[in-house]
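Trying the structure run again after the queue cleared.
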Amino acid sequence: MEKKNYNPEFFAEALNEAKKGYAEGGIPIGSVVVYNNKIIGRGHNRRVQDKSPILHAEIDALRDAGRQTTAVYAECTLYTTLSPCAMCSGAILLYKIPRVVIGENRTFMGSEELLKSEGVEITLLDDRECFNLMQKFIAENPHLWSEDIGE
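Done. Tokens:
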């Protein structure tokens, strides 16, 4: 897949968020929301740390971005280290975010087809560091990973 509308510096920030989550004992998934070439929201999966059933990285980044108008979100790009699940994809669609850059989807294939079917532009990086971080976490915490993906 062509890597258009992709800024490696913004992706590096999403990956830093994933590493922060891992260092906190959480699931290493990170995300940033970018508007006008500036990060307006950042977050990482905090399900374990905050004992939350819904605080995935994308949701945390949207929460950090705060109340924005639909016009702002319609100009954003969401960077995430792992393919967005159905819940996070729903939030992307709800706020009409037109572009999503995904670190990897080998560990987990989220709702990319749904996003594409609704006109969201997907850029898949297949980033080795994201994949390796997830594999390390899953080997160390298989029960947390199963819980996170609803198995």
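The radius of gyration is 14 Å. Worth checking whether this holds up in the mutant runs.
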